[in-house]
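Progress report, Aim 2. The chain analyzed during this reporting quarter is listed below.
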Amino acid sequence: MVDQVHQGNRKNNYFGKKAWKYICDEFYKRTGLKWDKEQLKNRCAVMKRMYIIIKSLLDRSDFSWDEATGTITASDEVWAEYTKEHPDAETLRSSGCPIYKELCIIFSEPATNGNHDHPAEHEEGTPNFHQLEPLSIPQEVPSSSESEEADDGVDDKETVQPITPSTTGIRKRGRKGIDDAIAGAILEMAAASKLRTAAIQQRDARYTIANCIKALDEMKGVDEQLYFAALDLFNKPTAREMFLSLKHDKRLIWLQGKCRAAGPVP
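Predicted structure tokens for the chain:
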């Protein structure tokens, strides 16, 4: 989504069909999860609400954003007082939101210089989101003229009903659903991150220098000059991955070509 925003493919606060196709394809490449557009649109809506909730927290002077850790910081007394009224905020207190910077790029209104709001920057003239009651539920109301585009995007026109005795109870009852969804989104993102980390670790464990040397020692027709040239080549992770991914009968030819291109070994 961030890539599509940077490429200018989010028009009138919507991603088009081509942008959603790209997002679905990239999500699958990065996570291995085959989610369709509707699933990602639903998750996008949850992340948007998460962005608004976190931003409303950070608009308070007693909360601040720690970009290094991706957490919302405040004193224990401030958190204790806040979570008494909003117990669902414990999720944000404990887990934070490591992707908040990216959420700012996706969901914030562009400033006059073309940039987007940043969690650590509150420059004068930067469009601000509606002043929200912390952890209230924004209601999305797309107009009829937007109905066709709404099929391919998440509406950015958030309206919040005035807080009255009659609506406060509804808000409190409704909060649990959205906060459960946000908590679920955080857990899913954490799980996806763990899957990516595990996949990277598994890949790195396979394409090690030791495994390359073991495969090299098992090959026939490798003279001393080619052998030591190959050891230098194995310092490159991409070369190790390519070498071990080739069929056994192709490795010698590939090594000879690579080492010849690198020049003679002194």
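The longest strand covers residues 64-66. Confidence is low (pLDDT under 50) at residues 111-116, 119-153, 155-167. These observations will guide the mutagenesis work planned for the next reporting period.
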